[in-house]
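Project outcomes to date are best conveyed with an example. Our students and postdoctoral researchers have been running inverse folding experiments weekly, and each run begins with a structure described purely in tokens. The record below, which covers 552 residues, was selected by the lab manager from last quarter's runs and is presented without edits.
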């Protein structure tokens, strides 16, 4: 018998992690299985329903639509405890409290009305520990879907019960038009006045176009040339009011900025090592909920947020180099860890958590909250995306029913979600294994991952944005947002420079469920290849998923 090929170190590490998680019984993602009849019904709709562009006003979403107050969309709280309690007693009390929370939530919300949310107590425990030990909470949201990822209950708990400060980080602002970024910042600041709101991007310099873009792919190693660390530092200075010496952090930011301008890439020679602490469950269980603020003169910041909002990328950008792996798969960060940014600044990375809400499942998928790999029927989500984006000029598709003898004008033909998937499969060469037919399922998954990565930008809007768009486009604070995004002028904003290429804020994929074409382009685990940079410090991509060389 032929000898079996030995496992690689990466495979052995993965198997060991799975065994450890099975033994502990924690960090399992739970998903409801849909009935076969429901899946077939949506497939039929995807084949028959003609796609029609929705009005721009349909993209406007209010916070109360996602988190209605009367539905009791809270999150599980850690029950009271004292140091005389045994570990087993505390665990039983937490489990009982969590089950009571789920029962109360289901009593107010009939089946099918709630979105997918975290049912794993172990992951909620991580959130409790991070909030208890942090002095300042960095609540990170994706600027494309901020109201989906900002639970009001969390804001009121941190500012009201814990009496701590929140810094709302609007991440990935390079994926959104500047006026829309500014509109979201003002809307959220008005809704939640007791917090600081800052904009952030890990990859400034990417021109945005609402019509047609040349989309870059992820590369194996990125430069942490971030826009926004200085704004987070200034917010912390205002919060601490001199009680913590943040001068070392300010100097680090200045050194990183100089390194990017002079070298184009930051050297990782170990001169500024980062101390990392792993926290076991036992060590975290008996943390004091009334921790002294700024203990030993150290500012502790906790990074929390939904999956795929870029928590790990923000942390890497603040550190100046990669210390946390990133992935588009929800649940990638599983364990609570802390990193000393400077001797007086400590960062805590918490696993991504999905809070209960009333978000449409299609929107959850496009926002990266629900894993694409768990979808049984992705076509309705593709239709939802296409009705809200100008997909034809971007994808450059040929209708499946088009005859080669007649001139082709896709804008005059009727498209269904299934037609889009068939055409994209034909464009990308996705074929089924047995019959060599166009693989519409794989094409649908590919399109959804493009949307999650920001290569097909769907951006929600605050209430009233379509009516006041002219005011935001001429707002005096707009120049600051454009400068943060790294854009030179408004020509980049309008998409008139389509040939420019840049690194987007989409997180790198590291998992086995990604498409084969993506596997050829990038892998987040490898760090051997470097990205070439021009003299101005802007990243130049070496490939393009939808470049003219491929879609012409």
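After processing, the design step wrote out the following sequence:
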């Amino acid at each position: 018998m032929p000898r079996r090929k030995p496992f690689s170190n990466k495979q052995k590490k993965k198997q060991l992690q799975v065994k450890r998680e099975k033994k502990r019984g924690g960090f399992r993602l739970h998903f409801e299985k849909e009935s076969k009849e429901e899946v077939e019904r949506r497939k039929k709709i995807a084949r028959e329903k003609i796609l029609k562009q929705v009005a721009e006003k349909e993209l406007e979403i209010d916070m109360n639509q996602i988190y209605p107050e009367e539905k009791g969309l809270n999150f599980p709280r850690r029950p009271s405890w004292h140091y005389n309690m045994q570990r087993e007693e505390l665990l039983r009390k937490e489990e009982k409290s969590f089950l009571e929370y789920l029962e109360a939530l289901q009593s107010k919300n009939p089946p099918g009305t709630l979105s997918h949310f975290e049912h794993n107590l172990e992951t909620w425990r991580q959130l409790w520990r991070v909030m208890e030990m942090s002095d300042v909470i960095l609540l990170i949201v994706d600027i494309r879907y901020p109201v989906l990822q900002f639970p009001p209950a969390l804001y009121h708990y941190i500012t009201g019960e814990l009496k701590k400060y929140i810094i709302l980080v609007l991440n990935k602002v390079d994926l959104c038009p500047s006026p829309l970024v500014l509109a979201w910042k003002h809307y959220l600041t008005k809704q939640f006045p007791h917090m600081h709101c800052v904009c952030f991007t890990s990859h400034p310099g990417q021109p945005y176009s609402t019509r047609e873009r040349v989309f870059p792919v992820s590369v194996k190693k990125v430069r942490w040339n971030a826009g926004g660390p200085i704004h987070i530092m200034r917010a912390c200075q205002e919060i601490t009011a001199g009680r913590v010496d943040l001068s070392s952090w300010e100097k680090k930011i200045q050194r990183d900025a100089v390194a990017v301008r002079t070298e184009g890439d930051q050297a990782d020679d170990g001169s500024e090592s980062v101390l990392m602490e792993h926290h076991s469950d036992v060590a975290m269980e008996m943390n004091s909920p009334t921790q002294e603020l700024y203990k030993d003169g150290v500012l502790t910041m906790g990074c929390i947020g939904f999956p795929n909002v870029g928590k790990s990328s923000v942390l890497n950008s603040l550190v100046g180099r990669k210390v946390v792996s990133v992935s588009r798969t929800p649940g990638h960060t599983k364990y609570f860890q802390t990193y000393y940014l400077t001797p007086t600044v400590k960062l805590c990375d918490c696993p991504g958590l999905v809070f209960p809400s009333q978000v449409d499942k299609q929107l959850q998928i496009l926002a990266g909250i629900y894993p694409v790999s768990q979808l049984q029927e992705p076509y309705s989500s593709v239709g939802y995306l296409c009705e809200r984006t100008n997909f034809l000029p971007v994808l450059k598709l040929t209708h499946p029913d088009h005859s080669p003898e007649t001139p082709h004008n896709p804008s005059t033909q009727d498209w269904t979600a299934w037609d889009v998937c068939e055409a994209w499969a034909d464009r990308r060469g996705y074929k089924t294994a047995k019959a060599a037919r166009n693989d519409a399922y794989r094409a649908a998954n590919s399109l959804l991952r493009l949307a999650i990565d920001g290569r097909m930008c769907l951006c929600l809007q605050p209430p009233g944005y379509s009516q006041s768009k002219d005011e935001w486009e001429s707002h005096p604070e707009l120049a600051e947002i454009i400068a943060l995004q790294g854009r030179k002028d408004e020509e980049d904003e309008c998409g008139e420079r389509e040939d420019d290429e840049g690194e987007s804020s989409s997180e790198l994929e590291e998992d086995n469920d990604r498409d084969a074409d993506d596997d050829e382009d990038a892998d987040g685990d490898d760090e051997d290849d470097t990205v070439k940079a021009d003299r101005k410090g802007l990243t130049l991509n070496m490939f393009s998923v939808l470049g003219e060389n491929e879609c012409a």
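The radius of gyration is 24 Å. The longest strand covers residues 136-142. The training component of this project remains on track.
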